[in-house]
Design a protein that fits this description.
about 130 residues; mainly alpha; 4 helices; about 65% helix
Length: about 130
């Protein structure tokens, strides 16, 4: 263990998701993943029954959010310069930077959980 973290887990591993191999791994992964996607995803039972499918959808959803933050950052100065005072525009740019960093971290965590869920499904962990 490194710093209280099992060696197989990276720093990107979400704190609320139990490690792969734990009895509650898939359950905690599903709860965490559903918190990242639109609430209506909970209406699809297949996503609860097959966590690897949910993690794939979450990966695409969070990846799209990161792309949107990057696009927003690239275009904000041009699109907003006539509508906001310079100090407010600077604050918007900082918000995009902070959100981009946050979402990039979430995406790394989703990718780690996704890889573990796919391995679990491949090894027969998901029914």
């Amino acid at each position: 263990m490194l710093g209280g973290m099992p060696e197989s887990l990276t720093q990107d591993w979400p704190a609320s998701v139990h490690p792969p191999g734990a009895d509650s791994f898939e359950q905690t992964a599903v709860v965490w993943l559903f918190d990242l996607v639109p609430a209506d995803y909970r209406l699809h039972g297949v996503l609860r029954r097959h966590p690897a499918a949910l993690s794939r959808l979450a990966r695409h959803y969070v990846s799209a959010a990161l792309a949107a933050a990057r696009e927003g950052y690239r275009t904000a100065r041009v699109e907003l310069r006539d509508h906001l005072p310079p100090h407010a525009l600077d604050q918007v740019m900082n918000a995009y930077l902070e959100e981009g960093r946050r979402v990039a971290g979430v995406l790394r965590a989703v990718e780690a959980v996704d890889a573990a869920l796919r391995a679990s499904a491949r090894d027969g962990g998901a029914e």
